[in-house]
User: Fold these one by one.
Assistant:
Number 1:
Amino acid sequence: MNSEVHQSQTPPLPSSISMIRTLGLIAMISGLLVVLVVQFTDPIIKEKERLALEQAVFRVFPGIDRETATRVSFLLSQQGLIRVDEASGSNDANLYALYNNNDGQLMGIALPAAAQGYQDVVRTLYGYDPECECIVGMVITKSTDTPGMGDKKSVEGNGQFMANFANLSVRLTADHSRLAHPIETVKHGTKTAPWQIDAISGATITSRAIGNGLNASAMTMVPLIKHHLNEIKESE
């Protein structure tokens, strides 16, 4: 008798269709919330990235600031030079040119570089001066290597190491097809040539990652820049 009463009071289990509908509704609402969050935060993130890039571009050119120059972004490849409209949300640019606000003259070219470091890829941005065929500045845009040795703050705070990039040679061969001397990272205190980077003592892997990234980028981009230099100069 008690068993019959207990069974009669047990609520029926929801049907499979009802459960599927509920789960589907939850998934739809969750997806909608994710889309709304992305739509809200994406412009904010992109604007922060744009400002960070703007700061980095001007930092690699000592003496040039926003009051005297304007940045223009390009995609440069074997197929040619294409101006990139950042307002459209495109992030395809791999070359950033600075032009004098008064006369439109090209003042410098900034280029991104990257190579594997100790823990992750070390990303940099460097300034290239086509007149001297040299790198005139470098900043770390991302590094998760050992704090206090290979991270962004430690590397950029090492004045002796950063001096490597005040006049680092990336001169081309006579036919402008390649670098006359690849960028080379050497053991701390053994630099003897203008295309060499004197590594940070205790952070050799990070130093080599920076050098390898600059070399890979320069080997590809500097000959292309030389080929399209007049076009870049006239694209302001």
Number 2:
Amino acid sequence: MRIACLGLLTASTLVACGDNVPAFEPWYLDELTPDEGVWVRTPEFAVAAGEEIQDCYFFEIPATADDPLWIDKFELALNPGSHHMNLFRVADIVGLDPAAGEPIDLGGVQGTVIRGGECWKSPNWATWPLVANSQQSSLDEPVYAWQLPDGVAARFAPGERLMLQVHYVNATTQDTPFRGKAGVNLTRSTDDTVELGTLFATQQNIRICRSSPTPVYSGTCSMPEGLHRVAAVNGHFHSRGERFSVYAWDGVSTARPPDAARFYQSTRWAEPDMVNGLDLALPDGGGIWWTCEFQWREPEIGCAAVDARDPQMANDCCYTFGPTVETSEHCNVFLYYYPKTQDINCF
């Protein structure tokens, strides 16, 4: 196998990538042959001080002799400073159209990219099934590698179009010390498989205000009928987030499930935990209940930018749902389960 480097590879493995002054040890991912799977690398890009960048890269699953393509290992790599990377299956086109992007070489595949613009607007991918996500971009652990449970794999049709969304921040809440870049390896499964399903859920009715500084918001999401097992889960919010919890839910109760039903909790907003290897059975006919606990903080950039985003125009320095780390908040769940009945989106 050939080896791909994050940045500039020289005789020394401790190098600065591109035009960065600080040196760090780049991440490496194998370049997969068609028999081994699919690999994607974004180009490097600068993230200037004060900038947030969110770009959407589109590519297709290559056609091979095997139909369909089953994947049982994900490797997701990010330069330090990233806020997230999400991989989705492209479905209904609203405003984010792959055909409107500029052509780009993504290493193992050719694709298109839309920089900013429609890539910031979540209604554009509200119906797009989740494939994989990572919020791990620390200097010590820039690669998240996940081997799916034995006999479980994600299924892709040749020619199926995917979208890789990459978000970098270099501002007051997060910083990007080097240049941005992302990489994905999708490794082919050779075993008989049970199909992996995904659940992407978001609570958008959130307000974290100066006058109400410690709000708690919850959401529920139902699974299709049948017995399903959770393989992995993580949560996502911004710097006002204090605690993210996910519970098994019976699908009926209107009160938060007991602590014994909680199977995920994270207090780390910038590098939230991804929990895998769960093999947790959800109640038949039930689903999940998730809760985000927040703590209002005075924005370092001042309240004017936060107030400008408030649809209620309350002038109470209220952080509301939105994509930018500096001026808005999230309360999102990424969950992986099997056997797949359907991919689930709860907005």
Number 3:
Amino acid sequence: MKAILNIFKNQFHTNAYETYVSPGRVNIIGGHTDYNGGHVLPFCIDQGITAAVSYRLDSEIHVYSDNFKDLGILVFDVTNTEYEESRDFVNYVSGMYHELISRGYSIDKGINIALSSDLPVGGGLSSSASLLVLIANILNDQFDLGLSGIEIAAISKKVENQYIGVACGIMDQFIIANGKKDHVMFLNAATLEYELIPIELTEYVFVLVNSNITRKLSESKYNVRQRETQDLLHILQEHIDIDYVCDLTPEDYEKYESVIQQENLKKRFRHLVDENARVIDAKNAILANDFVLLGSILNEAHRSVRDLYEVSSEVLDELVLLALEAGSVGSKMIGGGFGGSTLNVIKRSELDSFLSQFRTLYQIKYQKEPIIHIVSVEDSTRRIHD
């Protein structure tokens, strides 16, 4: 907080009124099930975006990010919130203003805001959802909008879908708006019913490895997969009354696989029904504090996103293999795919050995140091009080 307050003062030559933190997220399992009406199992992490804010008397919004110093302070007005390419990342800020104003909320004053993030852009930790939920929380407080965490998640998803142009599901926004420290969330993405499941990271820890491959989801095959599963759903709906592909089970795949002619859609179908079942198995493994079982489920999940949903990459697959060789009990890619990070389940008593072996294997393969982070399970977006 001291760092962001200093950044704010240096840029705006005044003191901030409020400070906020908005976390990134890790989805333990549930690869691409959220926009197919299935279950997911995410949690908030101890990396994220910090913000310092002061309120303005005029209608201008002034945004500075310490991560994009070369852009300087970017400015727009509440009377002009349409998407503009020149705004760069600030379109996420203007998008939230645009959506709230279009819903009839009276937002007529601007803000000064300084941002700093330790979330790697494109690292699969949902930096975009973190920023959207952050701005929604700031405006919710500033204008006393009375929005719940569930409403903030839905609004943030709409901005990402319609304003930014990424056909994502609601998982990222939902966990970042509603997560709880030392709990993972078992979320039904179709109904938004959820449970907060206690998790004890005492004997085992979660370790992230960043592939250091950045990609914009809107420019990747993410949207292609979304369209493919919509095509799959429409074919299935000709034979069974369902709302989502994940309404079906692995047993249903055997019944309806023959009606799917395209091989790629068969693969997507197999992945989604199996993955949705794996989320439930993973939830039960956490409830039983069985991290060895959880690890084996994650290994199976990675093979599925690699071979059936086909959203992994050569580097992500290699990182998984290196982690398993170094002693991980379970490893898989996280995020939308084609880049991002891997999640690894490591026995705490073997953590030092794992880190040493993994670094050695990684350096042999890539001739550089890996980007590793041992994550903890944290709270959702919140204002920080002195």
Number 4:
Amino acid sequence: MMGMPIAIEIIDPEGEEAHIDEVLAYFHYIDETFSTYKTHSEISRINNNELDLAAASDDMKEVFALSDETKRLTRGYFDIARPAGGYDPSGLVKGLAIHRGAEILRGHGLKNFYVEIAGDIQICGKNSQDEAWKIGIRNPANNNEVVKILKLSDCGIATSGTYVRGAHIYDPLAPDRQLEEIVSLTVLGPNVYEADRFATAAFAMGPEGINFIASLPGFEGYMIDRRGRATMTAGFSAYAT
């Protein structure tokens, strides 16, 4: 979706390939609607002044409303309006899509599975060993190395950083400021939508982002700065193996 890899694993014996196909079809719809790289997408038509937001789909209006809410909750550090003009809601849409993809599987009575897009994951139930899922956090300086392994169940995890996609996040309050102080910020939350939107905002805050995550009830975070030093919230170590 949006050029990012997707992974879905279902442990429940009731799981069927048709369930995965249904989630993938939903992701295809999200891509066709919200991709800023497709000229025919709804968001591109809005950005090109070919479609007014008032005439947009209910899903588009909801994403704009959720983006406004997130901007308020993050004191302006999350903003889908681009400095050069137009809108890019991908910092919220990806997590929302994963979360709702997981809801599709739950709607079929499935309880043990995970849904991932590019490292952001909704984790449900247990893995094939009937244990909590083991999720690794990559070393930003070495993609083949894992710096932390977490045991997770029924939660979301999202990472914002520059080590894979380069500099694609900006500080809406100071658009010209280079975000160089930190390279990776991982957030655990009640679901991947919440984790993803706050991870994006916290990364834009720079080193203070980890304190913002610590202030959110039910969230934990793990930040790596450009010198390779890690800072974590008080309850994060409870999830590490």
